Each structure stands twice: as structure tokens, then as C-alpha cells.
Amino acid sequence: MELQHFSHEHPLTFSKKSNKKLSCSGCRLPLSGGPTYSCDECSYVLHYLCAKVPQKMHDVAHKKHPLTLLLDTPNCNGEFVCSACGDTGKGFHYNCATCQFSIDVHCALIPESLKHHSHSHPLSLKASTSSSHCAACGEPNEGISFGCLDCKKKRSFELHVYCVTLPITIKHKGHDHALSLRSSYELNEEQKSVSCTICSKRINQKLWYYGCNTCNKVVAHTECAASMVLYGAQNGVEKMQKPHRIHLMKRNILAGRIEECGQWYP
């Protein structure tokens, strides 16, 4: 199956699997072994989703004008700052020339609404307010987030886009059982607090965490568990800073994990 993509002079061939050591010529992120379109004559390769994004679109984060897909930024270093996640990137992104608004293709692929397992109502993509906090991690919301319109008058329920992409279960070679995502921790009569198995810091009982349902020997912050899987980090809090969270979010979007979170075994 061939595709003549406007970004490249040669036809691109579809492949179900890709070389994890290579990066996408469009968004510049790793291929991660998923489906791609690649050139048989040179090293040009695109994620399947990057090859399929439209050249023009309207986005919920910028409703004033249509956005145009740019292959690169016409400035000296070729970089742009995504208005949605705040990340600095290169390569494919959408731009509004009138407002100087830019958004990378991954954030542009985020659906306007979804049903998440953590909440009873549908969640809608919205511009975050400075006073709102994420129900999963407790940190302030920036750029865009998912919020419940039904709960707005009673109590605000909002999630970072990154937290929405967290998988329900993860598996690491250092532990025999899968870790499940949980929304709150209930202390037993003998416990005054609970600490993360990875970083040894206290876990907030009201925030999300990962725990082992089989042996109950592992309890971890979401970022510590994610960094342990991604980077093999012993101290997840030091490793999983904002750039890593954004990178993980984009990997999950590319893998189709934003609407239906399944098992994650990198």
C-alpha cells in the first residue's frame, strides 16, 4: 500500500512494524515499533498517524481561525513552542499565521471529548484556568485539559492530558505482577501514611497511584511507575520531569491510548 505524501517527493510504503531505533521524519519522535509509511529510496519515514494528519484543520484550542500544517518552522533554529502543552518541538505542527499560534500534531490529535474510566460523566477538552488543579496528580492545569462540564457548578473535575493517557495497567520486568492504576488509597487501621516503593516519598491518599493487586508489595506514584517502565529509573521523581511527561503523553497518543487505556508493556 503506497502513499504519495505532500512532504516527500517519493512514494511511501506502508509497514505494520518499524525500527524502534529510528525517529519519525515528521514529528521527530521515536517510531516505537508501530505502523509507519517509509520511503524505499531514502531514509524518510513517518508514523502512520503523522502521515494521515490533514493539511488544514480547526482545533478546540484555537477556534478563531483554521490551522495549517507546517513541515518545519521558518526561523533560524527550526523550533516552535506548542501553545497546548508548552513543549518546544521541531518538524510537523499546525500554525495560525494571524495569531502566531502553534500546536504540535500530537496535541492536535487529542479528541474534543472522551469517556474516561475515572469519572461517570464525559470529559471535554478545554482551555485550563490558572486556579484549576488536576484530580489525578494535584498539580495546576496549564494550556489545555479535560474537564467535566456536568460537575462544573458542584465541584471541578479536571485532568491533565498526560494523566488521561495513563494506562490502566503497566508491567515492569523488576516485578512479577502487573500494577493497576487506582484513584485513591485507603489506609488500614495500622497505617498512618503510605510511601512510594520507588522513591520512598509519601503518597497523597486523594491522588492517583499504581499498586499491585496480587501481592500488595508495590505502591508507587504514577510518575515513578511510568519512569520505572520507560527509563528503568530507581528514583522516578527525579527522572519524570515535565519534558518526560509530555514525551510519554505523545507516545500514548500515537499508540492510540488516549481514548481507550489498555495494558502498557513497552
What does this structure look like?
There is one protein chain. The chain is of the alpha+beta class and 266 residues long. The chain has four domains: 51 residues, Wheat Germ Agglutinin (Isolectin 2), domain 1, CATH 3.30.60; 53 residues, no CATH class; 52 residues, no CATH class; 100 residues, no CATH class. The chain has a five-stranded mixed sheet, covered by helices on one side. The C terminus is likely disordered. Pfam families: C1_2. This is DC1 domain-containing protein. Keywords: Repeat.
Topology:
Blueprint lengths: L1 E2 L8 E4 L20 E4 L5 E3 H5 L3 E4 L2 E9 L8 E3 L6 E3 L2 E4 L4 E4 H4 L4 E2 L8 E5 L16 E4 L10 E3 H4 L4 E2 L8 E4 L26 E4 L6 E3 H10 L4 H4 L2 H13 L8 E2 L2
Parallel strand pairs: 15-19
Antiparallel strand pairs: 1-2, 2-3, 3-4, 5-6, 6-9, 7-8, 9-10, 11-12, 12-13, 13-14, 15-16, 16-17, 17-18
